Amino acid sequence: MTTTQNNFYGLGIAPGILDVLHRLNFTVPTPIQYKAIPVGIEGKDIIGIAQTGTGKTLAFGIPMIQRLAQRKGRGLVLVPTRELAIQVNETIAKLAPTFKMRTAVVIGGESMHMQIQALRADPRIIVATPGRLIDHLSQNTVRLNDVCILVLDEADRMLDMGFAPQIERILRLVPKDRQTMLFSATIPAEIVKIASAYMQLPVRTEIAPSGTAAELVSQELFVVSKDRKGQLLGELLKRFTGSVLMFVRTKRGATKATRLLRNMGHGAAEIHANRSLAQRKEALSGFKSGRYRILVATDIAARGIDVTGIEVVINYDLPDDPENYVHRIGRTGRAGQTGHAVTFATPEQGQDVRDIERIIRSVIPRADHPGIQMDRFSSAPAYAPRPSAPFRSGRPHHGGPRSFHSSRRRR
Fold first, then answer.
1. What's residue 208's pLDDT?
2. The CATH number of domain 15-206 is 3.20.20.80
3. Can you give the pTM of this predicted structure?
4. Which residue spans of the chain are classified as CATH 3.40.50.300?
5. Residue 398 — pLDDT band, cuts 50, 70, 90?
6. pLDDT at residue 405 tops 90
7. What's the average model confidence in pLDDT over 389-397?
8. Cα(365)–Cα(382) distance, rounded to whole angstroms?
9. How far apart are alpha carbons 185 and 323 in whole angstroms?
10. What residue ranges in 185-228 does DSSP mark as E strands?
């Protein structure tokens, strides 16, 4: 069959992996998969720039497994969060058994003893967070001298979380003669520095401009005072009927918001750094299964949640880092589905909103609600939004505001 973006054939993928993809109903490659897989299979270094929810795990997982099947050595995948490590491993583990490859997950919050046992079983692929991998390196329970393929997944997020020293230490310990695949939604200066120092003529595969918000996610912004946020949230949750991922700024804020939602009668769980790994797993599995309709998260989960079918992302608080807005709203509208993102901003946060709009290169449509007093930003925006009618009537459309009076509900 000829190369086409409508299937995985012609990308250089081995027949055994193609059979597995077919059994798993992976039939059409995403743009990042279509561009990155052939380059990765050739053994070239890659800088893959793609927004969240675009299938990056298979984009590096397929080349990694195929190349490891042809040579000795080990694959190492570094990710920023525990949840993302588990999910990356789940995806890779669907392909690895075809070639009798074991995987191991090395993350904080779980038993070091169990991880040591898994490492002693000689896994061909290790998925790790930088901090816990450094712990194992310090205790001589893992070696990196046989790593021939290194993946840095969500590299910008790892740097945002302060992992730069750990990443540089790991990069110095893995052999120079290796393949490196770096994937990120944005390309800050720190990543350019890593690429120039530790990669060999990387091929840049860019699916969307750095910082671009997910194309299938419509957005709207409410300017509302802090004391009216809870009331507005309650009204919004009457409008949407599906699963909701809600972001807040702080761990304490997550606990308060979860309590507020439960008092409204909604099934809600929280996920943040103060929760144990077991509690975070329970919250995420409960959200996936529908036991909890709403998952309240800090930005630790902005890239670690891979759940299809999230109807709406609610930014109850603006993120500290405007780039995290892209990663937050990328939790909906995944795998070709449409999604919606609602953002709350208080009157004094006009500059924060303008910073976000510069990154996404568009204006977030302003909205209002007939039963709740809306506010305006305290200063005129430098990034002037295009004039728009109040959010009161009209048919919903992609990228624009929706009506609270419309009888059509999002499904």
1. 58
2. no
3. 0.66
4. 15-206, 217-367
5. very low
6. no
7. 32
8. 15
9. 9
10. 203-206, 217-223
